[in-house]
Amino acid sequence: MSAKSAISKEIFAPRDEKMLSAAQVKRRTKKKIPFLATGGVGAYSTFICLSVTNKKPQQLYLTKVKQFEGSSSFEKRSQWTVEQLRQVNGIDPKQDCPEFDLVFDGGSDQWQASSSTEKSMFIQILHHYCQRYCTVRKPDFINCPSRLVGGQSVCSVVFHCKIFLNRLRNVMVSNQGRHHFKGTRAAQASVNDAGSAAQKARQALSERGDRLARTEEKTEEMMNSAQQLSDTAHKLAMKYKN
Q1: DSSP 8-state secondary structure symbol assigned to residue 84
Q2: Which of 14, 1, 86, 98 is nearest to 51 (CA)?
Q3: Pair 130, 139: CB distance under 8 Å
Q4: pLDDT per residue over 82-115, tens digit each?
Q5: Residue 51 pLDDT > 90, yes or no?
Q6: Contact call for residues 168 and 201 (beta carbons, < 8 A)
Q7: 97: buried, middle or exposed (CB in 10 Å: 19+, 13-18, 0-12)?
Q8: Cα distance between residue 173 and residue 199, in whole Å
Q9: What is the per-residue DSSP string for 174-228?
Q10: DSSP code of 83?
């Protein structure tokens, strides 16, 4: 079981919440601590998680979860409602980078994700659900690439692919645990069928992503050509005007 699946099962499922996304992070700047317990706390991994309550009216939460070195369990540390989130700063809107800031009512945290891809996925999902669930006040998303806070894109297709495949994997794991498969032919056939379906889904979604990527490239080429044509026309107009 992956760390994120374990977090979802240990931290959010017992609280009747559904984890929507998680990013493994570390602080870019050390947080000032007024005192240290004897012997310190040791090394740990930190995850910033986005979850939503199953009961209506549904509420979005951001939760900081830690796993200490040598432990297989996870601990919930801090939690905020998304209404307490004032700003999400993507640091650089022109290139991918793993750094981002979260600004809350009572302070801010400067994070670095394990990768720029993980950060991008987390910000896009956070933006999507803020638009969906925040009715009173939505946080500001600044310095974020437009593909993360705009409409449909290759990144959003990847996001939906991951959701679909994660759900399919969870169903397979749940079915295996419920029925205690013993390696019978029928069980093996079910697993094979599910694996085949997952493979086909991956291939279809990958092909869709490739088509969208090619479309975006062609659109960009057309925009560049149009800009060059406009510049040429402007130069000719200025030449004959003089």
Answers
A1: G
A2: 14
A3: yes
A4: 999 999 999 999 999 999 999 999 899 999 999 9
A5: yes
A6: yes
A7: middle
A8: 16
A9: HHHHHHT--S-HHHHHHHHHHHHHHHHHHHHHHHHHHHHHHHHHHHHHHHHHHHH
A10: G
